Amino acid sequence: MSTTNNSTPSVLLIGGPDAGKSNFLFRLWLAVDDGAGALVKDGFPDELEYLRQGLESLLKGEFAGRTSKEVLEHVTIPVRSASDATKTGVLSVPDVPGERVLRVYRSRHWDSLWEERIQEGCGCLVFIRAGSSEIVSPLDYAECLRLYGSALKDEARDASQLATEMAESEEPAAVLNPETEHAENRDDGIRDVRSVPIEPPTDVVLTDWLQFLRRAFTDKVSGAYRPRIGIVVAAWDGVQKDMLDQPPIEYLAQNFPLLWQIVDTNEHSFE
Amino acid sequence: VESTVPQRNDAVEGEKLTTIESKPSASDQRTSDEARRFHIGFELGTDDALELSRGRYCHLIGVLGASDAGKTCCLLSLYLAALHARLPNDFKFAGSLSLKGFEDRARRLREWKGGPLPAQLADHTTLDNPRQAAFLHLGLRQMPAGRRVDLLLTDLPGEWSKTLVDRAATADRLEFLQRADGIIIVVDGKRLLSNEKNVEVRRTKHLFERLKANVKLDLGIPVVLLVSKGDEIEMKLPSEASEIVTHATALGFNVKPIVAAAFSYNTKFESGTGVFESIEYLIENIDPEPSAATRTPPDATVRRFNAFGETSR
Fold this sequence. Notes:
The structure holds two protein chains of two kinds.
Chain A: E1 11-14, H1 21-34, E2 39-41, H2 49-59, E3 73-81, E4 88-95, H3 98-107, E5 109-110, H4 112-115, E6 123-129, H5 141-148, H6 159-168, H7 202-220, E7 228-234, H8 248-255, H9 257-265
Parallel strand pairs in A: 1-6, 6-7
Antiparallel strand pairs in A: 2-3, 3-4
Helix pairs in contact in A: 1-2, 7-9, 8-9
Chain B: H1 26-29, E1 36-37, H2 46-55, E2 58-65, H3 71-83, E3 91-95, H4 99-106, E4 134-142, E5 147-155, H5 158-166, E6 182-188, H6 189-192, H7 197-213, E7 222-228, H8 239-251, E8 254-259, H9 275-284, H10 292-295, H11 300-312
Parallel strand pairs in B: 2-5, 2-6, 6-7, 7-8
Antiparallel strand pairs in B: 3-4, 4-5
Helix pairs in contact in B: 2-11, 3-4, 5-7, 7-8
């Protein structure tokens, strides 16, 4: 932690929609407010409404609702060490809706909200909510064969023929989210092959995000700086029963293998 | 069913010509505060590849073959193996500047557009570009030792291989392959056993001849003759493939035939068989002494690659 205002340490919460970022934040505030953990509050946050409302939901036994897609909630909590009152700082945590995280993946740029927080001392928490219906699975060999069939063997085949076969298939169509890039790209009269899942896999999005962060830290701070990255598997009770006794890294390896690999192979880049 | 996909344009033979593209939506593009722009993630042009190469040595692998030979399937199969941590010999995914490009190709969202195919390797790609003749990047690390391998895999229209055979003048656009660390030539295994086998064998032999005489490929680099759709030929190397290898060897090439099944319909064979083996063969057999041809590049594109190559080897 640092006490200087121009380098307030930030923790970036990164995750797609319904990843559990906000509920984590409210739980964090509850713990800091109660003073039972290693971090305790060092005064009240200037803006408390967002935290208060979220915490009240939790205290009523409800999960907080989805963060607004457009409204950015920026939480700052003055904290100090429970064991050493001289160690103080400000926890600066933007609560960014998951849609914005997806948007950065698609548009390949981010705004000053992210850029300003890329600094030495900044840490990142990547969120995955176990069992979330918003998690998009990656394609695998079997899925490709099911979706495309012999089209994989014959690149020259007419795409309309493929679409007809897929439409006649009894396999359920993948979810077509109306907010995706694809659905919005229809004004040219072109429609999508309806069964192809068009949302990017969550594993791929989060992995690319780690690459974005590495690039930004290298440019702004230095290539030698290893940002501290945590991966939070939220709603652990939602994992498959046979995973409950396994460590979270095992869950990651089995369910988010790309993210797991890039973490495993880039120890020199991330702490 | 309504017409749910764009109609194929038959103007260019043999390529997939859907015009679906994965572009950022209007809301994605809406921004008044763009503080940092990242690589577009689709594919890398020569400028992008050069920039990447400045940081670490990249293995450039040329993937050639006819339009329906299975080049894209091989690239996707490699991607899916990496995506699911199924690469053999402790290789793991370590990063990619074209993750979005792989993903969109896997979902058939980024295919060759209708109309003229790209005529040259792209220098630089942007979000607005359709699929370009360019590179796909895949960074791997072999654990636990930690050896890093960065692959730059060409993603070229099959038409380029076909027209190279037909017209020597088109060799110019492939001269960047003089910097290649390895080449994969994909041939359709089923065709090698069909009544078109003689055509396929002759065309592939001619491709090797063009690569030597006109592209002036470095004969010291390893070459894989990847026989695709192996699951449909019991993963047995057709004698026709051996005939091609014999011809290429006589020309001076160092060729290893590998039967592959990028996506297997046959439960006896796993999808991906032979694909990574081809890559691994190439990176394990890199020529440590670049030939004179590599050191005297004929054009600016190659010079830029070689300038890096010489300082980083």
